[in-house]
Amino acid sequence: xxxxxxxxxxxxxxxxxxxxxxxxxxxxxxxxxxxxxxxxxxxxxxxxxxxxxxxxxxxxxxxxxxxxxxxxxxxxxxxxxxxxxxxxxxxxxxxxxxxxxxxxxxxxxxxxxxxxxxxxxxxxxxxxxxxxxxxxxxxxxxxxxxxxxxxxxxxxxxxxxxxxxxxxxxxxxxxxxxxxxxxxxxxxxxxxxxxxxxxxxxxxxxxxxxxxxxxxxxxxxxxxxxxxxxxxxxxxxxxxxxxxxxxxxxxxxxxxxxxxxxxxxxxxxxxxxxxxxxxxxxxxxxxxxxxxxxxxxxxxxxxxxxxxxxxxxxxxxxxxxxxxxxxxxxxxxxxxxxxxxxxxxxxxxxxxxxxxxxxxxxxxxxxxxxxxxxxxxxxxxxxxxxxxxxxxxxxxxxxxxxxxxxxxxxxxxxxxxxxxxxxxxxxxxxxxxxxxxxxxxxxxx
Length: 445
Hints:
32% of the residues are buried. It contains 13 helices and 23 strands.
């Protein structure tokens, strides 16, 4: 069933009650019927008031996830002296990118702390608000790890030249901890009377902040909230560690040499072809496992124009002005794009979430109110000539002309035809995907 508005789903808001003593430690409340979750007492949702939708914070009045639910939760913590409220939301780089959320938090903050395993210049390009944050006199502490030589030390040098920015690198631990990798991803932003934190899987790279599949939690509340105090204390512990060092000439030289040798080792592996062959075989196996021939299920041909096709991939989204048509497509159904006028096949993927109703135009030709989020994972360098496949397509050989069958927005494919089209796109896409098969540890860019 469709859910109205850009919210794409019902409000999934619950309250958590906890009581703390004056030191901030949780204390038991034997009268509460709730279950205990990491020091918080979860009150069953039927006992909570519905409340008003939150219109504050970096998500705005119309923001919402695209998966048919709203993961925002209001968390209420009561102490003996005051009652405080923190808000929480899941970020996944789909409905709202971690980079956009971090930029929005910075736009209101006077101080910020970042601790990540890997950091690259591409991450700085995603942080639009840093220059404005600086101009307002904001202060930033930035800590990046050295494990696997993934961090670009040039980024740390660039940041270190900016006023109000202090930079450190977390170097390898002592012998007792030599097998432990420095792997946090913590972002803390402080306003006058509020603190926001993002904690999750995202490194300070374009991949982590925008392109990768990531999971992070955004928290926002008063500075004396126990959870937010813990996040800030965790960063402080890393920042004050004896292994967190300013980037001196000696450190820069040693780290740069280690990174250079690592990149040379990767180049040697590529030249030998062994690692590339192994990853190529893995990629082929994965594609076979989700093919229509082995996996079954339904496959849809999505018929679009050359102008709308790139926007579909950028979303990645599919839109229709007919509710009944789009509601037929279910989560995990496969999709193949057909580009009319060009008469060619394009990318393939899956339906990611249930249909939703939108309020704003996205495609230039008209307003498609009903939409689906997609997972697009293979795209050929050049779209494939559809007419060359016609002799092998059973559903297009009888009855009215094949062109007439494509005068619609979408078409459920015959299972055998789906296999033929899928395999054709897969074969044409392998070269495109293999150019990026060898991804080093971390976020890839």
